Amino acid sequence: MYQPKKYKKKDPEYIFKFIQNHPFATFILKGERLLATHIPVLIEGEAENFRLYGHIANHNEQFQHLKDNTEALLIFQGAHGYISSSWYKEKDISTWDYSAVHVNVRLKLQSQEELEQSLINLVHRFEKDQEQPLEYRDIPSEIISDHLPLITGFWCEPFKMEGIAKLHQGYDSEDLSRISKKLQERDEPMDTVLEKNIRAENETKDR
After folding, report:
1. 164 in a domain, yes or no?
2. pLDDT tens digits for 45-82?
């Protein structure tokens, strides 16, 4: 990951919480070429000692390369967006603000029991706040029986973690106010979250 010093995020707690809050990852490994899949990946443990887990379909091209100790890269991405230099009080260069975490991992295949527990956790993670949650154990058993043989679960043991948050650090309060106002006015799906991230990052720097 390219990490200019002022944007680098090394705090394990930041990385841990970022992954918790942005669980939809890009899962990359090397086959005959580089292969990528977009999947939910959950994290368990603590900031200083955690592991991740997910699963893919067996008909996925990555499946044949899914073996113990294989290296993979997980990319977690936060809200991002174009920042026009026309928003600044003086002419400058336009840019793109974003945040992301990269985690290099070694893979370990899950047992059937581990896969089922992972699926229970995964469904609960996203169902618990629904008005009428449908937990994994509430799904008809025949559907589960048909589905399980078609997927493979895996653990991801991290050995390198990198974080970045490029959120207009170092800009003066007038430019930050202009950026905030423009993002609030612009009708882009991630702009509300991006604006909050920029404001929070620069409020932190001011304290």
Report:
1. yes
2. 999 999 999 999 999 999 999 999 999 999 999 999 99
Q: How many domains does the chain have?
A: 1
- φ, ψ of residue 141 to 5 degrees: the values are -60, -35
Which residue range forms the structural domain that includes residue 44?
5-82+96-170
Contacts of 148 (CB under 8 A, 6+ apart): 112, 115, 116
CATH number at residue 24: 2.30.110.10
Crossing angle of the two packed helices 191-206 and 173-185, in degrees rounded to 10: 160
Helix (H/G/I), strand (E/B), else coil: 175: helix
Instruction: Using alpha carbons, list the distances in angstroms from residue 36 to 73, 164, 172.
Output: 9, 21, 39
pTM over 0.70: yes
Angle, alpha carbons 81-50-144 (nearest 5°):
85
